[in-house]
Amino acid sequence: MTAAPGTAAPKTAATIMTREVVYVAEGDDVQVVAKRLLESGHHSLPVLDQDGRVVGMIGERDLIDAHRQIHLPTVLSLLDSVIPISGWREYEEELRKATAVTALQLATPKPEVAHLGDSVESLADRILKRNLHALPVVDDGGHLLGIVSRSDILRALIQGS
């Protein structure tokens, strides 16, 4: 798509993304992940399989959750049955994170991703609605091409006004 003469081309993921992405491999130890995350200064990192496809996102919250105490769900015992009152899903998620050994086990699976043609406005909307720090930009096969962070979006919005 070409912009009309005298107007700027619409900004997309392709034009604002960071192409050199700090990432972790799916088999990386959780301690390696924590170190890479802290050293990078990013809030979240994509998790890649051996073919370079994005299989998860891992963030500061995931690492903090992995070190928290697990809270047992509240249950009601009635006639030899255990009836959860609330919290089974939260308990399962806490248990998954607390027992994770690798990046893939700790990461949020099937993360939200962006594609090259996604507009800055749609990227901003998705990041804000889902409270994300970044969106990995992938090709049709799910291979990592870049990443769009909140900072990238803010920079594009400020430069566009």
UniProtKB/TrEMBL annotation:
* InterPro entries the UniProt entry points to: CBS_dom, CBS_dom_sf, Diverse_CBS-Domain
Naturally occurring in which organism (per UniProt): Acidithiobacillus caldus
Which keywords does this Swiss-Prot/TrEMBL entry list?
CBS domain
What is the designated name of this protein? Answer: CBS domain-containing protein
Q: CBS domain spans which residues? A: 17-74, 107-161
Enumerate the PROSITE patterns for this protein.
Answer: CBS
Give the domain of life: Bacteria
> What SUPFAM superfamilies does the database record attribute to this sequence?
CBS-domain pair
Q: Keyword Phosphoprotein: yes or no?
A: no
List the SMART domains hit by this protein, alphabetically.
CBS
- Gene3D superfamilies tied to this protein: CBS-domain
